[in-house]
Specification:
Neurolysin, domain 3, 22 helices, three-stranded mixed sheet, binds zinc ion, single chain, 2 domains, mainly alpha
């Protein structure tokens, strides 16, 4: 036991409390808060961010961290991880002048509202100057931390995925581009038409909610430790391992809410699997954004869009929607939920084209951060890339460059984690199939065995291991995106009766 760690504990709890309050306000903003509240709440969020900043960068805390690092041997594994995370957080925050930190928190609290209005009114011009400010701040903050030999974009990428830089991602996205773009062309040229018309129609919101709750619980979301609400875009908020919140939204496409619930449940199950000795600490969350997406997309696609998954539960879905699905066979339903259709909106993309949406964002972020791309040019570059990779062209900014919230929040370097997560998940799946009768378990309705594997091998570590370490420990090898590409080529080659050729 280290005395310095004992002394550090109340400081950590205080910082954690500010952070939790801030997150709760952000959740509230997106779900229940009245529309007029935004500007005033933004001030509160700014103050809480400032308080968190002061708590973490307090010179006393820094001294204690240094002492803890000397006392390393007397700390537990969890304590060592917490101290390491805190040291990194201090390094990250310390280099930013407090005034700038606060200004940026207020800017991003305001800018999401400006973005939302711009998107609704298809008015990129009103968002462009704010976006420019955000890009400038983000670059400035990264420049304070950049190490020798590192690029600014590397600094941002590392925040979301430790150990993944431009070089690694260029290689990863290069493989996706070389193998998936021509494969997609083959599929769309194949003439194979999958009917999914029955997924759209008069699906009542109450019924969708009811079935959403059923499937959340079926895959393992615990309603005693979580809630589900409605927001414009589905997301998960994690306060601690006894309070994890998911949201969804409803429209007339029943599969949108259904799969977003399963997706967010995947995120939530990760956080619910964090052990008590780690929760409410700096090491008590999913280890990275990519690993998080690996879990959510694993539940959504590898489990949820798997034919075997539907064997025990398709009837339940049919009973909820007898008019819409009563006469649709399970096979037809499963084909429909796996239909490939190049589209403009990332969040509605099918499993195959999804990572191409991410590829486009990666290339554009790199241009914004590394090549000083003028934000005014974004709508055209965006449209050109969609046409090149997906064969579709947005007609306006709302269905193009304005569709995602991330940049308005200052989250640069986040997007790649969506594609990385899908690839991590496929690598786990490849390994798990050797270890267990994966599809057999799904057919029996036994999600628990699969979930337990993920909890024991991934969730319970929180931030004790990096995503790369987890991949290595679980699958015996480093990150290898070929599993992901092979998984997609095989699954969709079969579905569309086309050659898997690379
Ligand atoms: Zn997600």
């Amino acid at each position: 036991m280290s005395n310095a760690y004992e002394e550090l504990k109340p400081c950590l709890e205080q910082a954690q409390a500010f952070q939790t309050a801030k997150i709760l306000f952000e959740w509230d903003n997106e779900t229940l808060a009245p529309k007029e509240a935004k500007a005033n709440t933004a001030k509160v969020v700014g103050t809480l961010s400032g308080a968190y900043f002061c708590a973490v960068t307090d010179p006393k805390v820094k001294k204690l961290v240094e002492q803890c690092q000397k006392d390393r041997d007397s700390l537990t594994e969890a304590e060592r991880a917490i101290v390491r995370e805190l040291a990194e957080e201090i390094e990250k925050l310390e280099c930013i002048p407090p005034q700038q930190y606060r200004e940026f928190a207020e800017l991003t609290a305001r800018s999401t509202g400006i973005w939302a209005r711009a998107k609704k009114e298809n008015d990129f011009e009103s968002f462009a100057p704010v976006l420019k400010q955000i890009v400038d701040y983000t670059k400035k903050f990264a420049s304070y931390r950049v190490k020798k030999g590192q690029r600014l974009y590397d600094v941002m990428l590392d925040d979301y995925e430790k150990g993944f830089d431009v070089k690694t991602l260029d290689q990863f996205f290069g493989m996706l581009k070389d193998q998936l773009v021509p494969f997609l062309k083959k599929l769309t040229d194949s003439g194979e038409d999958i009917d999914s018309s029955f997924l759209t129609g008069d699906y009542r919101e109450e019924d969708q909610e009811k079935i959403g709750r059923f499937f959340a619980e079926y895959v393992g979301f615990d309603f005693d430790r979580g809630v589900m609400a409605v927001s414009a875009h589905p997301f998960t908020t994690n306060l601690h391992n006894k309070d994890v919140r998911i949201t969804t939204c409803y429209n007339d496409h029943v599969d949108d809410s259904l799969f977003s619930v399963i997706h967010e449940s995947g995120h939530a199950i990760y956080e619910l699997g964090i052990p008590d000795n780690l929760t409410q600490t700096l090491a008590g969350q999913g280890t990275s954004m990519g690993m998080h997406e690996s879990q959510s997309r694993f539940f959504e696609n590898i489990i949820g869009r798997n034919q075997a998954f539907w064997v025990p539960v398709y009837e339940t879905l049919q009973k909820q929607f007898p008019c819409q699905l009563g006469s649709v066979s399970m096979e037809r339903f499963v084909r429909a939920i796996n239909k490939v259709e190049p589209s403009l909106i990332r969040t509605q993309a099918d499993e195959l084209t999804y990572s191409l949406h991410v590829l486009i964002r990666y290339e554009i972020e790199k241009m914004l951060i590394e090549e000083d791309l003028d934000v005014e040019k974004l709508p055209k570059i965006w449209a050109d890339k969609y046409e090149e990779y997906l064969g579709v062209r947005p007609q306006n900014a709302s269905e193009g460059v304005l569709q995602d919230i991330h940049w308005s929040q200052g989250s640069f370097g986040y997007f790649p984690s969506y594609a990385l997560g899908s690839a991590f998940g496929a690598q786990f799946y490849h390994y798990m199939k050797k270890d267990m009768d994966f599809e057999g378990l799904l057919r029996k309705g036994d999600i628990k065995t699969i979930r337990e594997f993920l909890r024991v091998n991934i969730h319970q570590y929180g931030k004790l291991k990096t995503s790369r370490q987890i991949l290595k420990d679980v699958t015996g090898e480093d990150f290898n995106p070929q599993y992901y590409i092979d998984y997609l080529l095989e699954k969709y080659g079969k579905l569309y009766h086309v050659e898997m050729g690379k």
